[in-house]
Design brief:
single chain; about 150 residues; alpha+beta; four-stranded antiparallel sheet; 4 helices; about 35% helix; elongated
Length: about 150
Amino acid sequence: MFACKRKNGGLIFMDRDLNNNYHSVYSLQYHLVVITKYRHECITFEMLEELEKIFTRLLKDKVCNVLEFGGEKDHVHILFETPPQVQLSKLVNILKTVSSRLIKKQYEHHLKKYYWKPAFWSRSYCILSTGGATIETIKKYIENQNK
């Protein structure tokens, strides 16, 4: 039904491009949403552009790729892919901590009216795994192995 095949030097599985490292073949994408502390609507367009640069650099440093970035006045969305050895909770902690520190330093005057403590992001976040196939498709694929 589905097969893993080579295409242009890479691997394709279930019509998805796969990445590989020394011991694994993978396709791991995540959708991260982080919100500002107290949901304050304090992110300007200029800040959003700077946040995109910060998140892109931080993820690249961890051998991850930003696939899409966007946001509004009180939150940002980051769609990214990562290798399997990356621990998501640690990665999210780094992303939030470093971006908060850099944004608060660069936009200190603007953010003074919103925050009196050294926090920019809420402690909570939402991270969702993404995939091209539904759970039912994957179940059927696994059921049909060795048939």
